[in-house]
Amino acid sequence: MSQIAEQTGIERATLYKYFSDVEAVLLAWHERQVAEHLHHLAEVRDHAGTAQERLEAVLKAYAAIAQQCHVGELATLLHQGEHITHAERHLAHMVETLVAEGAAAGDLRGDVPPAELAQYCLHALTAAGPASKAAVNRLVDVTLRGLRPVH
What we know:
The protein is an all-alpha fold and about 150 residues long. It has 8 helices and no strands.
């Protein structure tokens, strides 16, 4: 906490007024990061285009975010709690809505519930890990191919 206070120019007593320990500081920082990611994804979603185009843009942006996530003890600590549960629900709803719009337009398959397809997309792209940008784009393409209507 002393190092955080020194680096931020905040008195230790003030820091302790808002945060009980370093873990609380990290969790607050992570909540802010997650909120910024969700805001970015919403901005991407809200650009003009068909539902399918907007879905592709959101999935590419999500894959890029997922690619930056780290593994290990710190990631395990930070990816717990209500803020993560809320973010996951919000993201799933965003993707589900885009899938439903695409299915209604006939651009995406309508034989599988949109909620299932949304989970399929998110789980597939979370697996991207530390792949290259080209590999992530290929994975997004493969995922989107799975959403095409069955003829």
